[in-house]
Specification:
alpha+beta, four-stranded mixed β-sheet, Four Helix Bundle (Hemerythrin (Met), subunit A), globular, 49% helix, Nonspecific Lipid-transfer Protein, Chain A, 10 helices, two-stranded antiparallel sheet, single chain, 269 residues
Length: 269
């Protein structure tokens, strides 16, 4: 019988495959195309995924060794950036692609051996396997978006975004904590239309503060791939406005995000 964890792993594998098809079609020059993350090229985005997919496999197979590894890094995940970027920049594009393919494939294989009730270490609080794999899917989608935003890649959004949207809502308090702010207690309702046209309602259905619009817009904002001003999201209420200004679904220190006007807002029908 399929479990919720199995379904998330399947969706992560499909998200990896979608990105893989884009990467397979890149020219050698495409790999050095700058992305909207300052100082990062396409190869840097893929190197990031490869490194942290490798780290995720280590966390799943040897909890104690991985926890010790994190304790030894004074700044956590951010302290690791220089070495893995240097590694990727020293490789031919084919080498970076092979690195990511090996790491992502091992991640899937290892994830399928997990006890759904286990707790897994990461660069922050321990996580359930479902949350852990959801975070890897969010990373694969969002760093893949950084790639397809600047190359001629065909990777349409799908209803796999439900995982990213769920994580975006669940990490509302985290967005405040990483900035040293007190998380608000104001209830929030998020009403989204999925890529297939389904309606998703997340959070408190009776809340007065509401965020409403396309899941593609919401997921881009909470992963800091779009400024709110470059989306068509309807944001109603002071608590909703405050959250959308700092939303951050990923681990680590506060992200820089994107500036308003970097992307054209989609024309509504």
């Amino acid at each position: 019988m399929s479990t919720r964890l199995d379904e998330i792993i399947d969706d992560l594998e499909e998200e990896q495959a979608a990105l893989g098809r884009v990467l397979d079609a890149l020219s050698a020059a495409d790999w050095d195309t700058p992305t909207h993350a300052p100082g990062w090229s396409v190869r840097d985005q893929v190197s990031h995924l490869a490194f942290f997919d490798e780290a995720a496999s280590r966390a799943m197979t040897d909890r104690e060794a991985f926890a010790a590894e994190v304790r030894a890094a004074p700044q956590g995940a951010s302290d690791l950036e220089g070495p893995y970027l240097a590694r990727g920049r020293g490789m031919a594009p084919s080498g970076v692609l092979d690195w990511w393919r090996t790491a992502s494939s091992r991640l899937i294989g290892t994830a399928r051996t997990l006890d759904p009730k286990a707790r897994l270490p990461w660069y922050g609080p321990d996580m359930s396997p479902a949350s852990f794999i959801t975070a890897r899917l969010m990373e694969t989608w969002s760093h893949g978006l950084d790639v397809v935003d600047v190359v001629d890649g065909d990777r349409p959004d799908t209803d796999r975004l439900r995982h990213v949207a769920f994580l975006g809502v669940r990490t509302r308090a985290h967005s405040y904590i990483v900035r040293g702010m007190q998380p608000p207690e104001t209830p929030m309702r998020v009403e989204l239309t999925s890529p297939s046209g389904e309606k998703w309602v997340l959070g408190d259905v009776d809340a007065g503060d509401v965020i409403r619009g396309k899941a593609t817009d919401f997921c881009r904002v909470v992963t800091q791939r779009r400024h709110l001003a470059d989306t068509n999201l309807e944001v109603r209420g002071p608590a909703a406005e405050e959250w959308m200004a700092i939303a951050q679904a990923f681990a680590g220190p506060p992200g820089r995000g994107r500036r308003p006007g970097e992307f054209a807002r989609e024309t509504q029908a």
